[in-house]
Design brief:
The complex is a heterodimer of chains A (about 325) and B (about 180).
Chain A lengths: L2 H5 L2 H5 L5 H13 L1 H18 L10 H17 L24 H7 L2 H6 L6 E3 L3 E3 L22 H5 L3 E9 L3 E9 L4 E10 L2 E6 L3 E2 L5 E8 L5 E11 L3 E8 L8 E9 H12 L3 E4 L5 E9 L1 H11 L2 E6 L2 E6 L2
Parallel strand pairs in A: 12-15
Antiparallel strand pairs in A: 1-2, 3-4, 4-8, 5-6, 5-7, 5-9, 9-10, 10-12, 11-13, 14-15
Helix pairs in contact in A: 3-4, 9-10
Chain B lengths: L1 H19 L2 H18 L9 H19 L11 E3 L4 E3 L17 H11 L3 H12 L4 H8 L3 H27 L1
Antiparallel strand pairs in B: 1-2
Helix pairs in contact in B: 1-2, 1-5, 2-3, 3-6, 4-7, 5-7, 6-7
The chains are: A alpha+beta (about 325), B mainly alpha (about 180).
Chain lengths: ~325, ~180
């Protein structure tokens, strides 16, 4: 047997798939050919090296990232983006002293036609990682980037996010007003703000700029009957950068020292609504967030449970003026 | 669909990483593969083993990815770089992730991974499926859509190429 012919059978020999006569012939050749023996040993070492390459550890949330993308793809197939609805006729109201604009006052100002359209520009939650809102191009919302890891949000972007303070306002026949104050760190030329969720769906125009010394204040009417918490999304259309956030407020206190929670692919706002009565403080989630989350905490302090949730979302959490704030990872 | 991801993600990721040598590229390959699986699932007749069908999709994604990306030149470690009055060995950027994502536990694994990345894409696929996933020649032939004889000969060629490459790397390091 020639060397070139012998080497064709090296792999079969190592894999023990050679028949008996060929095995004998090959072994006889190897016994008398040091060159082929060396080649055989080198190939054997290559096999050993390849077969013992260790398994790599995938990213801990890699599978969830894929699942989120799959859901997003499904949603895009089922609910293609809708055409932009005709803009309601908003008559801009003069601001009251101190910049306070009451929701009921604004609502009374709408014409019947525009009041009916007020809910037309609903925030469309498109699964996965983005909240997609339809807005005219000249007012297209700049969406905060989804946290992808350290360094994904620049300090300028972080500073441009409004700080949202939450307080409880006056009682209403149906429940309670929740006052929101949006104070951006930089001046924003605001067009409108939308609040949706918990049976609320309104769009409120904003005249002029808002900024550190000129916050935007809203009174959100919340139905409280039978509820321990409520969640609503706040979408601010502004230039140069808009804002999206989720606000979850407790409507009662459970006051337990520890919580246990198992959530499998539940909406984020539902998970937070379970948690905030124990926290005893509102939670604001800055920017887009996954529509659903899976989480399990056992006998954890409420703040620790919130911290666990933040880690799961690759977000940071901090207590800011009595409000827990989840934001993109710094 | 989510159950399928949970069940197969780890093995698909491992193959994708060995094929691409890059953490992020591997995740991209995995994501794209499962999206294609989701889209094609209604057409899966069940006459083929699901795993085989899945890895056929992974193969296609990898081959498509290679077409999209710019060509990465895989220079030999033996290449010399000419300077004005001397020449030095070409310095190869470590393709493995940084310490915070360190995955190769030993130097040999790193060398093998680098060597695998120098193979043509089809050989790399076959090496991955045979040696990393321990698939049979029959399965690989079915996944690749090639006759079994072709699979065997290409795998042999890949192993011989790796053998030479690893030998060269070891010699270079010893010197």
């Amino acid at each position: 047997m020639q060397c070139e012919r012998a080497q064709e059978f090296f792999s079969d020999r190592l894999e023990r798939t050679l028949d008996r006569p060929m095995t004998v012939a090959l072994e006889a050749h190897l016994a008398g050919c040091s060159g082929c023996r060396a080649e055989m040993e080198a190939l054997q070492a290559t096999y050993a090296a390849l077969d013992t390459l260790p398994e790599v550890e995938p990213p801990p949330d890699g599978a969830w990232q894929v699942i989120h993308q799959l859901r997003q793809a499904r949603q895009e197939q089922v609910a293609p983006t809708r055409p932009v609805a005709a803009q309601p006729e908003f008559r801009r109201q003069p601001e009251a002293a101190g910049g306070w604009i009451g929701f009921l006052q604004w609502l009374r100002s709408l014409t019947p036609a525009s009041a009916a359209m007020a809910g037309a520009l609903a925030t469309l939650v498109v699964g996965g990682t983005f909240l997609a809102t339809r807005a005219p191009d000249h007012e297209r919302l700049a969406v905060l980037p989804v946290p992808q890891g350290p360094g994904s949000v620049t300090p300028a972007q972080r500073n441009a996010q409004p700080a949202i303070s939450v307080s409880y306002g006056r009682l209403t026949p149906a429940g309670q007003e929740v006052n929101l104050r949006l104070t951006p760190a930089t001046s924003l030329s605001a067009a409108q703000v939308r609040v949706s969720g918990g049976g609320i769906n309104f769009t409120h125009p904003v005249s002029g700029e808002i900024g550190p010394s000129r916050p935007l204040e809203l009174a959100v009417p919340v139905h409280t009957a039978g509820k321990s918490a409520e969640a609503f999304r706040v979408t601010l259309e502004a230039r140069p950068r808009g804002y999206q956030g989720l606000v979850v407020v407790p409507l009662g206190s459970r006051g337990r020292s520890s919580v246990s929670m198992t959530a499998v692919e539940q909406p984020l706002d539902e998970i937070l609504k379970q948690l905030v009565p124990h926290l005893g403080a509102p939670v604001v989630v800055d920017g887009p967030a996954p529509a659903t989350v899976s989480l399990q905490v056992v006998e954890a302090e409420p703040a620790a449970a919130l911290s666990e949730l933040a880690t799961h979302l690759n977000a940071t959490v901090r207590l800011d003026g009595g409000v827990y704030r989840l934001g993109p990872n710094q | 669909m989510e159950t399928l991801v949970q069940r197969h993600y780890r093995t698909v990721f491992n193959l994708a990483y060995r094929l691409s040598g890059d953490y992020d590229d591997a995740q991209d390959i995995v994501s794209e593969a499962f999206i294609r699986v989701q889209n094609a699932l209604p057409n899966f007749r069940g006459d083929a083993n699901f795993s085989t069908w899945l890895y056929r999709i992974v193969k296609n994604v990898f081959l498509d990815e290679r077409k999209k990306q710019r060509v990465r030149s895989h220079s030999s470690l033996e290449d010399m770089v000419d300077l004005e009055d001397s020449s030095v060995s070409r310095q190869v950027e470590d393709p493995t992730p940084g310490p915070e994502w360190l995955m190769e536990r030993n130097e040999q694994a790193e060398l093998i991974q680098r060597a695998v990345l120098t193979l043509p894409k089809t050989q790399r696929l076959m090496i991955g499926m045979y040696h990393f996933q321990h698939r049979s020649y029959d399965e690989i032939a079915e996944i690749m859509g090639l006759p079994i004889g072709t699979v065997k000969s290409r795998l042999n060629r890949a192993r011989l190429a790796l053998k030479s490459k690893l030998h060269s790397i070891r010699e270079l390091l010893e010197n």
